[in-house]
Design brief:
- It comes from Runella salmonicolor.
- It is a single chain.
- 58% of the residues lie in helices and 14% in strands.
- The protein has 19 helices and ten strands.
């Protein structure tokens, strides 16, 4: 069963990798501390959208100059100088991440290279970023990068990623110092009024104008007279706005005038008919019919099946039945291609649905875990001792899972026995004890308080045709 789920996840990730509008980022990367400009951020996200997340190692990312110019809204004749300056700065930008297991400091890029004759750049991500961008199994966020194209500040881009990360929960809470640390602006905006005006409100204004999600400050939480934390409410944008599509770098088709048509066609059959004959064809028959007649005749010439090539050409070009037959064949081929595209679109849609279902389950588990940890942090010793006693009673009655949960409880010399810290340590480690504690908190002790959160996920689950609980 596990391998089947892994296979579905792999296919879903592959579908995201092939979608030019979608990218997936590990949440640790979203929650890392770094400081880059909006232009650098857009360049970085454009590169991430080109990463094949199904691979085990990074491949070089190739991007054309025109892509940078249109994607990042850089309107200058000195485009090469701008890109090289931004690329070099991006290469030197560090990123810092820390969790219960690691503390990591690395660079976003390991190298960039400009190919003078091809007019393009290749970039390489730092290998330390592989766990955050490749072979993602859980704890990641998928979004459409058209949401950030028109954003002018890096703060707005980062807040959009945070809103997207916690979208299913509908809210998130962060300390003011935590936000400043993520954005690397600890030494800026010492005054909360300035921080709120130039960081929070500016980001909110941009997201409300240009992105599918924005936020409101639900509550300012104070410690004494100082605002210490902010609770954000995530809002789906009901305003209709135009997204800038990603660039299309396909070279435009060449449009030839009538004299060019004559020259091109005559160049194919100049050994057999005069240019005046070609001019007459163009006055009598559709271009496609002429091309079909010529192609069919030249195939027969190549097979040594005809002697009077000029006469045969005249007959085939004028043959409406040959033209109609070829058009019919092309129509059938196109119908087959359309059906194939529809089947592929349906498969991609199913893979995307499965990816969203998997992420919803992961988000719901994280919500229950966070809720449980919050109650442990704010609860007293009686809460913890009652739970241990609850497991012991069930164990004595022969309940196997309760016995397994007690056996799964791990002590740590860093924490006092049965302390809040040791309980939280066990919750974060997962396993049967964590599962039992989460069930005890969200399904029994604080069921009514958790119910609004559960309803949010149940509603989203119905939209995705799954049941989460």
């Amino acid at each position: 069963m596990a391998s089947e789920k892994d296979d579905k996840r792999h296919k879903a990730i592959l579908a995201v990798s092939k979608d030019p509008y979608k990218l997936a980022k590990g949440n640790p990367l979203i929650n890392s501390s770094f400081d880059i400009t909006a232009i650098q951020f857009k360049i970085l996200l454009h590169m991430i959208s080109k990463v094949d997340m199904s691979l085990e190692d990074f491949q070089p990312i190739t991007i054309q100059i025109s892509e940078f110019q249109k994607f990042a809204n850089i309107n200058t004749k000195a485009i090469y100088e701008v890109i090289e300056v931004q690329a070099e700065k991006l290469k030197n930008k560090s990123i810092f991440y820390e969790d219960d297991e690691i503390r990591l400091s690395t660079n976003l890029l390991s190298s960039w290279k400009y190919h003078k004759k091809k007019g393009c750049y290749t970039f390489r991500f730092d290998p330390e970023l592989k766990p955050f961008l490749l072979d993602l199994k859980e704890n990641f966020t998928v979004y459409d990068i058209r949401n950030i194209i028109q954003l002018d500040s890096a703060y707005a881009i980062r807040f959009f990623e945070l809103c997207k990360q916690f979208e299913n929960l509908g809210r998130f809470e962060m300390q003011v110092n935590e936000i400043k640390h993520l954005f690397k602006i600890e030494d800026k905006y010492k005054n909360y009024y300035d921080f709120k005006k130039y960081v929070i409100e500016q980001a909110r204004k941009e997201l409300k104008s240009y992105s599918e999600l924005y936020f409101d400050i639900d509550k300012e939480i104070k410690q004494g007279r100082k605002v210490a934390s902010l609770r954000f409410k995530i809002i789906k944008n009901k305003k209709k706005f135009e997204r800038k599509d990603l660039i299309d770098i396909t070279p435009p088709a060449e449009h030839n005038n009538e004299s060019n048509d004559v020259q091109i066609i005559h160049s194919l059959v100049s050994n057999y008919v005069a240019v005046e004959v070609v001019e007459k064809w163009l006055s009598l028959y559709p271009m496609e019919q002429i091309n079909i007649g010529i192609s069919y005749t030249l195939e027969q010439v190549k097979a040594n099946k005809i002697k009077d090539v000029g006469g045969y050409l005249q007959t085939m070009v004028a043959s409406k039945s040959l033209y109609e037959e070829e058009v019919k064949k092309k129509k059938l081929k196109e119908e087959v291609r359309v059906k194939e595209r529809m089947v592929k679109a349906k498969v991609d849609q199913q893979q995307q649905l499965e990816l969203e279902q998997q992420q919803l389950r992961s988000d719901f588990h994280n919500a229950k875990e966070s809720f449980t940890i919050e109650k442990i942090e704010n609860g007293n010793e009686e809460l913890r001792s009652n739970f241990i006693q609850y497991l012991q009673i069930r164990k004595d009655k022969g309940d196997f899972l309760s016995a397994l949960s007690l056996d799964n409880y791990k002590t740590d010399p860093l924490y006092p026995k049965n302390s809040k810290e040791e309980f939280i340590f066990n919750i974060k480690n997962g396993g049967s004890f964590a599962a039992s504690m989460i069930t005890y908190i969200v399904d029994n002790l604080y069921k009514e308080e958790f119910e609004p959160i559960r309803v949010t996920y149940l509603t989203k689950g119905k939209e995705l045709n799954i049941f989460v609980d």
